[in-house]
Structure to design on (314 residues):
């Protein structure tokens, strides 16, 4: 048995920034630090912060007035921002800059008279936050069926925006359906798709093309991008397993495997993937080869209040 290890894989720049924000906030302000929702969708990251005194809440009414509070990488609506101000919270915003860009586009295009068609998944935290910027002027489109059946206003101008954690492949059919149906629909001038989402899916496609027998995707059950990595493989006829760590590997999965692909979702720490590789070595893997399809060097800056604290700590 051999292992083919995806590159790129695991935490993207937005996740790295969000995790570092909570880490530096703990050092700057001390525990407890409150985080609305999960800072990123990974159970190991969340649990490690809980052990250090981070308190995760669903809504801000669970946070004591004036407390230090972090917004997750997925972003929040203006209503949440107002609620935080009403409770005099010390807010540190860990929203991924790519999500913030979409929020700015919503505001801009609605002011210009567009109705926004947001391609994304209902219930996802990013979608909920984005729709909160113009709830009366955004329609969520989750699939091709909705794209072909939704009510349209012939005189309206439409702008398509997308949940950042979907890839070009995820959205292509929906966008094509909207463009065929609507003559007055536009795409934003720059791409909203997260580079990391596309890069990780491209690496999985390449591994499938190299003949892997099984793909192990390391990621938590609530990570939509990790689930999608598994779906990319299964759509190509490759067995895929979504696991939270090495302890979930069943030896029978790899008894007859010759080449096993391994990757991690954009919210997954690389240490978890290395643990999976070590487990595969224990189960008989003789070599590990990188499957490199892109190089990533994006780094997002910390908020000024924490950047100053980090500089002083050096």
């Amino acid at each position: 048995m051999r292992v083919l290890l995806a590159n790129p894989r695991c935490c993207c720049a937005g996740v790295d920034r969000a995790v570092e924000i909570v880490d530096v906030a703990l050092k700057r302000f001390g525990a407890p630090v409150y985080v609305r929702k999960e800072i990123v969708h990974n159970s190991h990251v969340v649990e490690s912060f809980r052990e250090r005194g981070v308190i995760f809440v669903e809504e801000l009414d669970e946070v004591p007035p004036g407390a230090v509070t972090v917004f997750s990488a997925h972003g929040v609506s203006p209503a949440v921002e107002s609620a935080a101000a009403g409770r005099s919270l010390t807010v540190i915003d860990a929203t991924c800059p790519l999500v913030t860009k979409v929020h700015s586009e919503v505001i801009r295009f609605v002011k210009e008279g567009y109705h926004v068609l947001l391609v994304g998944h209902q219930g996802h935290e990013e979608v909920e936050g984005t729709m909160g910027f113009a709830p009366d002027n955004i329609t969520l489109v989750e699939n091709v069926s909705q794209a072909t059946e939704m009510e349209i206003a012939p005189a309206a101008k439409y702008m398509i925006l997308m949940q950042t954690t979907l890839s070009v492949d995820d959205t292509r059919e929906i966008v094509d359906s909207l463009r065929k149906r609507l003559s007055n629909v536009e795409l934003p001038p720059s791409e909203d798709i997260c580079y990391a989402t596309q890069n990780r899916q491209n690496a999985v496609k390449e591994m499938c093309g190299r003949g892997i027998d099984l793909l192990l995707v390391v990621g938590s059950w609530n990570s939509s991008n990790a689930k999608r990595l598994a779906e990319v493989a299964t759509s190509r006829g490759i067995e895929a397993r979504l696991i939270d760590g090495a302890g979930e590997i069943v030896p029978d999965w790899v008894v007859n495997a010759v080449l096993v692909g391994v990757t991690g979702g954009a919210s997954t720490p690389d240490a978890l993937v290395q643990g999976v590789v070590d487990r595969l070595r224990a189960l008989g893997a003789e070599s590990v080869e990188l499957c490199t399809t892109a190089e990533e060097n994006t780094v997002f800056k910390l908020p000024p209040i924490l950047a100053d604290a980090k500089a002083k700590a050096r």
